[in-house]
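Design job #97: recover the sequence.
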């Protein structure tokens, strides 16, 4: 089978890349070892954020470093045996944690955040999946005045970029979410422009079905079989080889498994995360995602129940689950909201592919060989995948991007 473009990876980023290339009249094959939306895109919080201009940074205060070093926090845990290997990446994260670099991140992520829902909407409407989208914002909760002070930088950037929000006291919070337990001193930020979904997996699958319905080819295959034959990239599909002059790598946490043997060495680290669904106790309900900013977890209503997601775990991508983090998160979440029984027998675990400046690589390889990169989205993939999908399609077709692509270039790591 000979086509124009092969897209490797059927998460939100890959599916969006395929749809945008297809919309430009290209014949596209979307390749994955599993069906669409089964990996990282399935496990996230399902929030399309308009806010969130402050990246995860390296702690600057000794007290915070010591707190995380105890390895008991819900927000961040680590495997001690992995940390020496991760040290160079953490050093780069530290360098990207200065005020100047945080400001660079905010400026760079703003075009992605601003366009996110506008890029999702046509896909969602054409795929008939708008029923999964909730346009009622999300809440960042701070149980103490000290914790609320940490959120001031996010508010500052929100004002700079015109993001709509309300500051809530305890009573106003309870008017929006009556089943949440909040301290007398609690404050919250209600980010009014955020959109959430009731099933990230169902959304990605609907987008993939839209791609196939428009004539695209979804192929089961092994991305690691990618190789050159003359001027073509070839991959071994389940039913035979597939060839194209252009290939887009959108493999998320597995991107470097393919790219390192090809000679590329990007500093991609994996932040593992967990989720589990719970019933709500009788009479309780949750209307939108709520983030406990001080403890470091999120609860959100999903089709399978209330989804509880953890913070970050630094561990080998393929290492067995360590349920200590989500066990602690469950205990904390039950103090915030009346969770009932767990829906699944055990929690889900997945990996977020993260670069040390918290921005993705969305770029041609630079080798003029038809190889393109669209990975490393970290916490941005589900919300901003359709935006970076458009950008990579611009590169493939020689179109003029409607945003500055420089912050996402692979050259920043060369």
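Job complete. Output follows.
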């Amino acid at each position: 089978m000979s086509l124009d473009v092969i897209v490797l990876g059927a998460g939100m980023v890959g599916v969006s890349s395929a749809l945008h290339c297809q919309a430009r009249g290209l014949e596209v094959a979307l390749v994955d070892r599993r069906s669409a939306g089964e990996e990282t895109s399935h496990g996230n919080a399902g929030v399309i954020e308009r806010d969130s201009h402050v990246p995860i940074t390296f702690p600057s205060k000794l007290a915070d470093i010591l707190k995380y070093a105890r390895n008991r926090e819900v927000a961040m845990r680590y495997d001690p045996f992995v940390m020496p290997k991760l040290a160079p990446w953490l050093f780069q994260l530290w360098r990207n944690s200065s005020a100047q670099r945080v400001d660079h991140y905010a400026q760079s992520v703003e075009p992605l955040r601003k366009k996110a829902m506008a890029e999702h909407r046509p896909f969602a409407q054409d795929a008939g999946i708008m029923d999964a989208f909730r346009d009622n914002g999300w809440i960042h909760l701070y149980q103490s005045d000290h914790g609320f002070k940490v959120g001031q930088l996010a508010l500052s950037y929100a004002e700079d970029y015109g993001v709509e929000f309300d500051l809530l006291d305890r009573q106003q919070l309870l008017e929006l979410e009556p089943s949440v337990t909040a301290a007398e001193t609690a404050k919250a930020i209600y980010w009014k422009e955020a959109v959430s979904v009731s099933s990230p997996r169902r959304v990605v699958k609907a987008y993939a079905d839209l791609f196939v319905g428009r004539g695209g080819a979804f192929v089961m295959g092994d991305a690691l079989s990618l190789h050159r034959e003359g001027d073509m990239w070839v991959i071994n599909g389940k039913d035979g080889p597939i060839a194209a002059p252009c290939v887009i790598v959108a493999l998320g946490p597995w991107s470097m498994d393919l790219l390192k043997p090809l000679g590329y060495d990007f500093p991609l680290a994996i932040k593992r995360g967990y989720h589990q669904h719970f019933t709500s106790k009788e009479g309780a309900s949750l209307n939108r995602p709520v983030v406990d900013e001080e403890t470091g977890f999120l609860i959100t209503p999903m089709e399978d129940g209330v989804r509880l997601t953890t913070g970050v775990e630094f561990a080998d991508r393929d290492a067995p689950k360590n349920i200590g983090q989500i066990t602690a998160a469950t205990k904390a979440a039950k103090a915030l909201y009346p969770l009932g029984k767990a829906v699944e027998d055990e929690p889900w675990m997945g990996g977020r592919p993260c670069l040390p400046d918290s921005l993705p690589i969305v770029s041609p390889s630079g080798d003029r060989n038809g190889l393109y990169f669209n990975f490393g989205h970290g916490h941005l993939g589900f919300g901003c995948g359709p935006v970076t999908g458009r950008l990579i399609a611009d590169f493939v077709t020689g179109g003029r991007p409607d945003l500055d692509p420089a912050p996402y270039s692979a050259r920043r790591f060369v």
